[in-house]
Amino acid sequence: METGNVPSAQKYQNWDDVFKNSQQMTFRPLNTGSIYSSLKPYTQKESLPKGYDHAIMKNYAVMVFYFRHPEKGDILVDSGFDRSFYENPPFGNLSAPYREYLESNNVKYTQKKDEDLMFHLKKHNINPSYTFLTHLHPDHTAGLPVLPDKCKICYGKLEDSPEYRQLLENHFKGKKNIHFLDANSGTAIAPFNKALDVFGDGSFWALSTPGHTIDHFAYLINTAPAPLLIVGDAELTKWGMENGVFMNTDHGEQGKTAVQNSAKIIRQFHIMYPHVQIWFSHDEQPITQ
Predict the structure, then answer these.
(1) Which residue from 41, 193, 249, 261 has the highest number of Cβ atoms inside 10 Å of its Cβ?
(2) Cα separation values, 250 from 63, 137, 143, 246, Å
């Protein structure tokens, strides 16, 4: 494992400067399964709309996002589910502690035939050279086993805790091409405090959005005609963002405050740059202008 150094890059005053250098890149959202759950385990109850029953059970998509960089090749954001969730429902390749947690919250992971990550990769002739994880929760890492050994797996360095590594051992087994993103090496481009120009060409940005986990990242793909912001679990869904819902956290009251701060920054960014599409890890529908 190593911490990747962000390439020396152009200095940008604001996101309008970044968007001047946008370029066409193939983009495709991939749905790899669903989570059948209430909002109780995942959201801050007090942020839900008045009268909303947080025990209502619904299906939430498990999204992976693909784009093709002109030089770096095929790139994924998150990995979703491998085929084990279809072959061994409802918990596929999850570790025993995660299965116990989900069962205690009446949560089920489901997957239809030909919905898994490998099916999508083969169908669309995608050969990933990089996978960038928003964070280390199992619905974002459970597709890692099917990735080629050459694929670089990248995520926030503070996520790499012994607890997560143990809980996700099934997903990272044999994976050695791992690189860390250091939020502190980023620069401020309002409203984000820490933005990393990942490849040094303005095409792809890692945006520090901690709270849901300690080192959560959102990712911006600077594609034409409209850039794309993938917010991971810093926001719940299109409905959640539009209704001011805040996600839950692994880190107590401090984490709840960090969730709110990150979500407020994303919502401010949306007001400032409404032409940027916003995509969610658990919704097939983006927010568009």
Answers:
(1) 249
(2) 21, 10, 22, 13
Three-state SS sequence of the chain: CEECCCCCCCCCCCHHHHHCCCECCCEEEEEEEEEEECCCCCECHHHCCCCCCCCCCEEEEEEEEEEEECCCEEEEECCCCCCHHHHCCCCCCCCHHHHHHHHHCCCEEECCCCCCHHHHHHHCCCCEEEEECCCCCHHHHCCHHHCCCCCEEEEEHHHCCHHHHHHCHHHHCCCCCEEEECHHHCEEECCEEEEEECCCCCCEEEEECCCCCCCCEEEEECECCCCEEECCCCCCCHHHHHCCCCECCCCHHHHHHHHHHHHHHHHHHHHHCCCCEEEECCEEEEECC
The pLDDT tens digits for 186-203 are: 999 999 999 999 999 999
Enter the tokens of residue 177: 């091409």
Q: Structure tokens of 5? A: 């150094």
Condensed to tens digits (0 to 9), the pLDDT of residues 204-242 reads 999 999 999 999 999 999 999 999 999 999 999 999 999
pLDDT digits (tens, 9 = 90+) for 9-68: 578 999 999 999 999 999 999 999 999 999 999 999 999 999 999 999 999 999 999 999
Closest residue by Cα to residue 211 from 243, 250, 176, 181: 250
pLDDT value of residue 1: 45
The residue count of the chain comes to 289
> Mean pLDDT in the chain?
95
Q: What is the mean pLDDT of residues 159-173?
A: 90
